[in-house]
Specification:
Structural class: alpha/beta
CATH class of the largest domain: Alpha Beta
Largest sheet: 7 strands, mixed
Number of domains: 3
Number of helices: 18
Strand order of the largest sheet: 6-4-3-2-1-16-17
CATH superfamily of the largest domain: Metallo-dependent phosphatases
Length: about 650
C-alpha cells in the first residue's frame, strides 16, 4: 500500500511538472490617452523628475521611462509587450508642435512601445496633420512605433487624406501586426470606436468601417496567420453602470466577436483597478489617462491554447519614481521648440509664471469658478455682450499645488484644442455674431436640452454676460423661465424678449457652429439667424470669425487659448508679487445656470413661447377628455 502511494505521488508530481512546462507566461504593459501630458499633473513649475519625495505632482513621461525599465527587468526572460490605447497627442503645449516634431511618437519609439492604436484626437489637426506628425517623427527616429488602425478607410475622391494614405502605404500605419516573442506568436489589431468617430469633427474625409465587422475580419486573418494570442488595441471605451457592472463599446464588441483574447482599451479615461472579464475569460484593461498609471497584465497561455489572467496591477506614477535623465533632456528640448515656434511671437514663454490661485479649481458641473473664468475671457476678448461654451471644452482643472503659481503651460491646458479655419494654427478661433433677444432664448434652450438629453457634464452650458433659470417641468425647447443680462459687478437686468436691439455673442468656432444649425437641430421648432453688427445675415461661421487685424492680408485669428492667457494676465495683482491673482470666491464663483423646478403658474408660463402654451393646452385637453370619458363610464355603470 505504501509503495502504491509513493508511485501515485510521483505520478502526480510528474503530471504537474508536465502541465507547468506546457504553460507559458507573458506580460502586457499598457497605457492609453497620453494626450501630450509629458510633465504630469500639477503645476509644471513644481514637477521635479530629477529627485524624489519633494513634489506632489503625478505622472510625467520621464518617470514612466524609469518604471518601464524596472518592470522589464522584473519580467526577466518572460515575453513582454508594451502597448497603448490611443490619443497619444492633444492636450498640452507639446501638441502644438506635433506636426513639426512628432514629439509624442518620438518618445513612444524611444520607450520601446510595440504598437499603439490611432485615437480620435490624433485627427484634431485633420488627416494631413496626423500625416505630418508621423512624417516628422520618422525623419527624427527612423523606424517608429507601429500605428494600428484596422477600420480606417480613405476617400479616393478627395485629396485631403492623400498624405495620410501615403503613410499607410509606407507601412507606418498598419491594419494589424504579428509579433513573435519568447516562442509566442501575438496578433495585434486596432479599432477606433463609433463614439470616438462621432466626436471628431476634423476626421473627414477619412471614414471608419463598422468595428464589429472589422474585428471579425481581423481575428480570422490573424488566426489564419498563426496568432496564438489575439490582442485588440481599442480606442472605444467602457462605462460603469449604476449596478457597478461595466458596459461600453469594448465590452459589447468582445461579446459579439469570438476569438479576442485581450483588449487594451482607451478613450473613456478609466483607471480600471482590475480587468473587466467579458464572457468570463477576455480581460479588458485601461490605465486611466495622461500617464498617471502604467497597467501590468500578467497572463498564462495554457496547454489548451487559452490565455488566462494570472494577475493584474495598476502602477501609480508619482514622485516616488526618479525620472529618466535622457527623456527629461528630450522634453526640455521640445519645450524650447514650443516657446520659439508658438509662444514667443505672442509674448509668452513655456515656463513663464503668469498667475497665482489660492485653491484648485475643477470642472465638475457644480463648480463654477473655472468655467466663469473661461467664458469671461471669451467675452472680454472680443468685447461681446454674451459668451457661451460647453463644459467639455474646458479640458483641465487648475491645480493649486503647493505654491499656487500657474505657468503659461499650466493655463494653456484649460483650453488647448482646435485648429484654425484660415491659418491652420493650433487653437479654436473665436467668433462674434449678433442675435436678437428671442434668439438668445433659443440658443439657451438648445444648449440646455443638449445637456439634459446627453446626461453628461461635457454638455453642461457655461455662459458669461448673463445668467438664466430653467424649469425642468416645462416642455423641451421652452424651459428657460428667466434671463438676466449683465454680471455681478455691473448688475443684472431682465431680458425683454420684445426688445429689438441686437446682442453680440462670443464663442469658439467649435461650440459656436451650432448657432447656424439651430433650425436643423430643433426640426424647425426654433430659429436663430446669426448677423453682423448692422443686422446683415452671416451665411456661414467663417463670416463670424474674429479678425484681430483687418488691415493685414487674410484673417488674423484670435485663438481661445490666447484669449484665456491674455484675460488672466490682465487680472489685478492684489498682493504685489508680480503675478495676477485669479479670483476664486464671490462673484467669480456665481452659478449662472439655475435649476428651479416649479408647477406654479407664474413659473410655468414666464417667458413661455408657443411650445409651452401649446403643450399645456394639449395636456389640459387630454385631461378634460379623460375626465369626460370617466364620467360617461360612471353614468353607464349606474
Amino acid at each position: 500500500m505504501r509503495l502504491f502511494s509513493t508511485f501515485s505521488l510521483l505520478a502526480s508530481l510528474l503530471m504537474a511538472t508536465s502541465l507547468m512546462a506546457a504553460e507559458r507566461s507573458f506580460t502586457i504593459l499598457h497605457t492609453n490617452d497620453w494626450q501630450s501630458r509629458l510633465l504630469g499633473f500639477g503645476p509644471n513649475n513644481e514637477y521635479s523628475p530629477a529627485s524624489t519625495d519633494d513634489d506632489d505632482t503625478v505622472g510625467g513621461i520621464a518617470r514612466l521611462a524609469t518604471l518601464l525599465a524596472e518592470r522589464r527587468t522584473a519580467a526577466g526572460e518572460q515575453p513582454l509587450l508594451l502597448l497603448d490605447g490611443g490619443d497619444f497627442t492633444m492636450g498640452t503645449l507639446f501638441h502644438t508642435v506635433a506636426r513639426e516634431m512628432g514629439s509624442e511618437l518620438q518618445l513612444m519609439t524611444e520607450l520601446g512601445y510595440d504598437a499603439t492604436v490611432i485615437g480620435n484626437h490624433e485627427f484634431d489637426f485633420r488627416p494631413a496633420g496626423l500625416a505630418a506628425m508621423i512624417g516628422a517623427a520618422h525623419r527624427a527616429k527612423g523606424d517608429l512605433v507601429p500605428l494600428l488602425s484596422s477600420n480606417m478607410r480613405f476617400d479616393a475622391a478627395s485629396k485631403a487624406d492623400d498624405s495620410l494614405q501615403a503613410q499607410f502605404d509606407a507601412g507606418r500605419i498598419q491594419p494589424y501586426r504579428l509579433i513573435e516573442r519568447g516562442g509566442i506568436r501575438f496578433g495585434l489589431f486596432g479599432l477606433l470606436g463609433e463614439n470616438a468617430v462621432a466626436v471628431s469633427p476634423m476626421i473627414k474625409p477619412v471614414t471608419f468601417a463598422d468595428p464589429v465587422a472589422s474585428a471579425r475580419e481581423m481575428v480570422a486573418r490573424l488566426r489564419e496567420e498563426g496568432a496564438e494570442v489575439v490582442i485588440l488595441l481599442s480606442h472605444m471605451g467602457v462605462t460603469q453602470q449604476t449596478d457597478g457592472s461595466w458596459r461600453g463599446e469594448e465590452v459589447e464588441l468582445v461579446e459579439q466577436v469570438p476569438g479576442i483574447d485581450i483588449v487594451v482599451g482607451g478613450h473613456s479615461h478609466v483607471a480600471l483597478p482590475q480587468p473587466v472579464l467579458v464572457n468570463g475569460r477576455t480581460p479588458v484593461v485601461q490605465a486611466g489617462s495622461e500617464i498617471q498609471y502604467l497597467g501590468e497584465l500578467r497572463m498564462i497561455l495554457g496547454e489548451d491554447g487559452v490565455p488566462r489572467v494570472r494577475d493584474y496591477r495598476l502602477h501609480p506614477i508619482n514622485d516616488s519614481i526618479r525620472g529618466d535623465e535622457t527623456v527629461t533632456t528630450q522634453v526640455e528640448d521640445f519645450k524650447q521648440v514650443v516657446s520659439e515656434h508658438m509662444l514667443e511671437p505672442r509674448g509668452y514663454l513655456f515656463d513663464q509664471p503668469l498667475a497665482r490661485v489660492d485653491q484648485s479649481l475643477g470642472r465638475d458641473f457644480n463648480e463654477h469658478t473655472l468655467a466663469n473664468l473661461v467664458t469671461d475671457a471669451l467675452r472680454h476678448a472680443v468685447d461681446a455682450d454674451l459668451a457661451f461654451t460647453g463644459n467639455g471644452t474646458i479640458r483641465d482643472d487648475l491645480l493649486k499645488g503647493r505654491q499656487g503659481i500657474q505657468d503659461v503651460s499650466d493655463l494653456f491646458r484649460i483650453a488647448p484644442l482646435g485648429i484654425g479655419h484660415f491659418d491652420d494654427e493650433p487653437g479654436y478661433p473665436l467668433i462674434k455674431a449678433y442675435v436678437t433677444s428671442r434668439e438668445i432664448k433659443a440658443l439657451l434652450e438648445v444648449l440646455l436640452l443638449a445637456y439634459q438629453v446627453h446626461d453628461s457634464d461635457s454638455y453642461y452650458p457655461r455662459v458669461s454676460g448673463l445668467r438664466f433659470t430653467y424649469n425642468p417641468w416645462r416642455v423641451p425647447f421652452d424651459r428657460v423661465s428667466r434671463i438676466e443680462i449683465g454680471d455681478e459687478q455691473r448688475g443684472y437686468r431682465e431680458l425683454d424678449l420684445d426688445d429689438g436691439r441686437l446682442y453680440s455673442i462670443a464663442a469658439t468656432s467649435y461650440v459656436g457652429s451650432f448657432t447656424w444649425l439651430v433650425p436643423e437641430l430643433t426640426k424647425g421648432l426654433l430659429d436663430v439667424v446669426p448677423k453682423d453688427a448692422e443686422g446683415r445675415v452671416l451665411p456661414s461661421i467663417e463670416e463670424a470669425i474674429v479678425d484681430q487685424d483687418p488691415h493685414a492680408d487674410g484673417v488674423q485669428e484670435l485663438k481661445e487659448w490666447q484669449a484665456l492667457l491674455d484675460h488672466i494676465r490682465s487680472l489685478p495683482d492684489l498682493d504685489g508679487d508680480g503675478l495676477a491673482d485669479i479670483p476664486t470666491s464671490g462673484a467669480a464663483a456665481e452659478p449662472r445656470m439655475i435649476r428651479a423646478p416649479s408647477l406654479h403658474p407664474g413659473e410655468l408660463f414666464r417667458l413661455a413661447g408657443p411650445l409651452q402654451w401649446g403643450g399645456c393646452v394639449l395636456l389640459l385637453s387630454a385631461t378634460l377628455l379623460l375626465l369626460w370619458l370617466v364620467l360617461r363610464l360612471t353614468r353607464r355603470l349606474r
